[in-house]
Amino acid sequence: MPPLNLGNQPPKTPLNADQAWQTTADRAAETILFFDFDGTLAPVADDPTQVQAAPKVLAAIETLAPVVQRIAIVSARPVEFLREHFGGLTGVDLYGLYGLEHSHSGGETVTEPAALPWVPTMAELADLARAELPSGALVEYKRLSVALHWRTAPQLAATVEEWGRAQAERLGLRLQVGRMVLEIKPPVDRDKGMVIGELVQGAGGAWYFGDDVSDIKAFAALRARTADDPDFLGVCVAVANPETGAEVAEAADLTIDSPAALGDFLTQATHHLT
Ligand SMILES: O=P(O)(O)OC[C@H]1O[C@H](O[C@H]2O[C@H](CO)[C@@H](O)[C@H](O)[C@H]2O)[C@H](O)[C@@H](O)[C@@H]1O
Q: Which N-terminal residues, if any, form the signal peptide (predicted)?
């Protein structure tokens, strides 16, 4: 394998992406491509219901899916939401709600059993948030989590965070911060790092593309797999943004400018891999 100088190994040198794709091409059938959704495959929008994958992204994923071992979308969104965007693509696995739900290649949605007793608590929490938070805050109910957004009312950040933290403490729930959002989740051990750590066990390589702090756990899972097996090729790619971009880029091997630029990058990858 060519020396790629991956990760935060000092001295950190820029990753040669063409070289990494070429190495991937030699082991494509053993390679997994993981993608976060919001801010990575889809540009951020004020209204979370109105997002769409960036141009070229879906076509590139459709081309790559039969070539690699697996493509997986690993997101904080529910699987049913992801299905609306990727359901037409065969060979794409969906991991929703940080892995509390999954669906393999168009199959039924499977929910982590330990999370199910928390559905009523989450529904009540969403109702309470709508009743108590100022109207500028956006409450997104996702069956097994509640996301509290302040993108369109940044002046409410502290109020919303304080309210969310107090409710999580009162109800014994967990928190995940994100881009102008605080997510409240059941106390179940499941995150993007755990999902990736399990899926890469039998793989020869994996790429993970993400933009938010929850994606750093996924990067760490690839680092851990590489530490166990130096022949494993793990590539961590950040997608730039003004909120979490610096922290995520610091943990990544390379940074791509935007979801639109990722569409171009993946299209380039299809030329290496097909
Ligand atoms: O794991 P992801 O797929 O990246 O999901 C993380 C959060 O994404 C969504 O919120 C973010 O995107 C919204 C739409 O562009 C934007 O309005 C918001 O400010 C961002 O935080 C989603 O709505 C959340 O539920 C996810 O937790």
A: none
* Total domains, the chain: 2
Q: Is the CB of 180 under 6 A from ligand 1?
A: yes
Residues 154 and 206 in one domain: no
Domain holding 231, by residue range, is: 17-112+190-273
Protein residue closest via CA to atom 22 of ligand 1:
48
Q: Tell me the best of 181, 182, 190 to mutate to test the pocket of ligand 1, counting ligand atoms within 8 Å of each CB and taking the most.
A: 181
- To test the pocket of ligand 1, the residue of 37, 38, 139, 161 to mutate (highest count of ligand atoms within 8 Å of its CB) is 38
Which residue, judged by its Cα, is nearest atom 20 of ligand 1?
179
By the 10 Å C-beta count (0-12 exposed, 13-18 middle, 19+ buried), 208 is classed as buried
pLDDT in tens, the chain (274 residues): 444 545 544 444 457 889 899 999 999 999 999 999 999 999 999 999 999 999 999 999 999 999 999 999 999 999 999 999 998 888 899 999 999 999 999 999 999 999 999 999 999 999 999 999 999 999 999 999 999 999 999 999 999 999 999 999 999 999 999 999 999 999 999 999 999 999 999 999 999 999 999 999 999 999 999 999 989 999 999 999 999 999 999 999 999 999 999 999 999 999 999 9
Query: Which residue, 152, 167, 185, sits at the end of a domain?
Result: 185
pTM metric for this prediction:
0.95
**ipTM of this complex:** 0.99
Q: Is the CB of 246 under 6 A from ligand 1?
A: no
Q: Is the CB of 212 under 6 A from ligand 1?
A: yes
